[in-house]
Amino acid sequence: MAKRVTLADLAEQTGLNISTISRALSRPDRVSSETRRLVEKVASQLGYATNIAARNLSRGTSDTILVLASSFKGQAISPVFTQLLLGVCEEAKSQGLNVMLQQCLEQTISARDIIRYLQTGVADSALLVAAEQWLPPTDSETGEKILPIVSIFKDLTAAGLTSVMTQETDGYTAIVDHLLARGHRQFAFVSGPEDIMHEQIRYRAVKQRLSAQGLDNALIRLKGGPFDMPSGQKAGQAFVALENRPSAVICCSDALALGFMHAVMESGLRVPQDVAIAGFDGMDYTAFTTPSLTTVIQPAVELGRVAVQLLGDLHNGKITVPRLVALAPTFMARQSTCPPCQD
Known about the structure:
Elements: H1 7-14, H2 18-26, H3 33-46, H4 52-59, E1 64-70, H5 79-94, E2 98-104, E3 108-110, H6 111-119, E4 125-129, E5 133-135, E6 149-152, E7 162-166, H7 168-181, E8 187-190, H8 197-212, E9 219-222, H9 229-240, E10 248-251, H10 254-266, E11 276-278, E12 295-297, H11 300-315, E13 324-327, E14 330-332
Parallel strand pairs: 1-2, 1-4, 3-5, 4-6, 6-7, 7-13, 8-9, 8-10, 10-11
Antiparallel strand pairs: 12-14
Helix pairs in contact: 1-2, 5-11, 7-8, 9-10
Organism: Komagataeibacter medellinensis
Keywords: DNA-binding, Transcription, Transcription regulation
Pfam families: LacI (PF00356), Peripla_BP_3 (PF13377)
């Protein structure tokens, strides 16, 4: 393996001090143009590769955003999160920033862990993706009033974090109104994990909308699981076994909805003639299933972009108190609730 070229090698070739070489590479505005050109020329000739970690330490910044994405044990990061990351990466690139991803197998994220990353210079800021539990810092852990951290998908403003999320209640209200307009009066809700905030918001939105229409006893709840297809399939099998089956089913995610649809169709039931099914998230593949899935599309890419912009506002002092930004979803009626239906 070839010997790594060091600052000392550059100093020997140029006749300059190592400190001058370092400034020319990390802060070229602090040396003369002649010195900068000389150092750059010799560095190029010798094949010098900048030690990014050392450079960041000297500058006091890493230009890096740490993304902490929660997931359930045994599951990969949600496809919704990958869309979100597209927006994060696009916006970060436009601002000259780097992105570092870390999967969290627990639903609890501690400020202590993030502060360690920030203090060691690994990252300058952090995005929390669907953190179910946030353990805020103690006064001894940080002297900053507002940490450079933004929560995505969950409102943590009360815990001191600027947050960006989807208006989930509006999305589920649109689903209920759509199904009511098609004549449905008995409903089932396929749940996610009952201790997860998203599941609670979505179930409550459906229940409250039905109650507002005088249908207080028109909803049953079917146990689902961690927003995946196998959990939806099990819920579908439980639905098939019911003596009196509702005519419409609203699921806590697209993955649950597709697993559910597979189970009921395998049993011989027709979708939507025997049961109408709707999901939530708006994953791309839902437009290509048979039948295509009625869903609510989360603006995941835009959520990612906005989150990075909010980090910039935090760094620039434009945000002095935690702020909540809620983006509107898009309801998409498809074949699983209304044949024939234009996608």
